[in-house]
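Entry 12.
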Amino acid sequence: MRYSHLVGKTKKEIQKDEVGISVQYLIRGGFIHKELAGVYALLPLGLRVANKIIEIIREEMVAIDGQELTMTAIQNPEPWKKSGRWEDSVVDIWFKTLLKNGSEVGLATTHEEPLTKLLSQQISSYKDLPLYVFQFQTKFRNEPRPRSGLLRAREFIMKDLYSFDLDKEEHEKYYERAKQAYIKIWERLGIGDQTYLTFASGGTFSKYSHEFQTLCENGEDTIYVDKKKKIAVNKEVFNDEVLKELGLKKEDLEEEKAIEVGNIFPLGTKYSDALGLTFTDEKGEKKPVIMGSYGIGIGRTMATIVELKHDDKGIIWPENISPYKVHLIGLNLDDEKVNKTVEDIYSKLLENKISILFDDRKEVTPGEKFADADLLGITYRAVVSLKTDGEIELKKRDEDKSEIISVVDFINILKK
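Predicted 3D structure (tokens):
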């Protein structure tokens, strides 16, 4: 991709009401565009990062037997009324509207109800279970106070997985598999060392649910962390009884601010009871299906990574989710020899299927190009100029030193 053709250019300044380093860098870098409060478009660079995050999550969901589908955003009120979650007094963040015929519909906040209804037409026997289904789908939540860009938005992409099991024992085994899959996801995304399995309220379903909280000064949650045991307790359930039950000591815990990047919930039979999702067991008896839900916000995860992976110049993307492998910068492009050299290198990279952002702008100073490269945070920066004399000055975004190498060596490094 030539930078001169890229949709989403860098900015020096953004709106003063945008609070938080992630939203500032993502807007300034041209990764996202603000439509209105809590609503952001993913521009090409942002979409490339989001898709790489999604692919990592998808691989881990498939590895625990998840089947991918996509549910509708427009919601029929019927199943939600049966579960008791249609009324605004119960769920106060609905977006609702009317069809031309006067029928009321909503925009999905989550998908337990419609998926339970769907699977009631698929599941009838114990032979149909277990079943695990996931999706990447846009959710809508009418947040009264959206904040910090993608960290709390009104429209966002969410990965939601739902489990359907025969009994509690089978559910608990899968719940543990999902927990371990989440831990792998955070490790692959480069935030595993700062993300803690956190005990939180289980609501009406169980004593506890589990959140995955990433330590961050800009986080809106308060958690108490035992860094040796690698677990934490959310402030909402922090008391002596809980600490005793979990085998934690107050003196071992540190109070921290954190961002919730994922959560897993036992659902029991709340939705299967309400929507008639049952199966016939081996004895011919009808029983409700045991359910669980497992969520990850894609935009929130992206923003959290930026909150942790940056310096005073810009973003430092982990290599496996960097929007491009290399940021090629051409300097002295008015010189015919340099221009031909950098164009040849660009062509060779494309031939070798190496993803590349090529800064081919002639009217921009070297300082501006370097500043843009630091802001965008692509893993490798490669400079071609009069000084490099047919070779390449290569530097990683998270390192200070650069080296002059041949084109052949350059391509071999990127192909690894």
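Annotation: The first strand starts at residue 32 and ends at 36. The mean pLDDT is 96.
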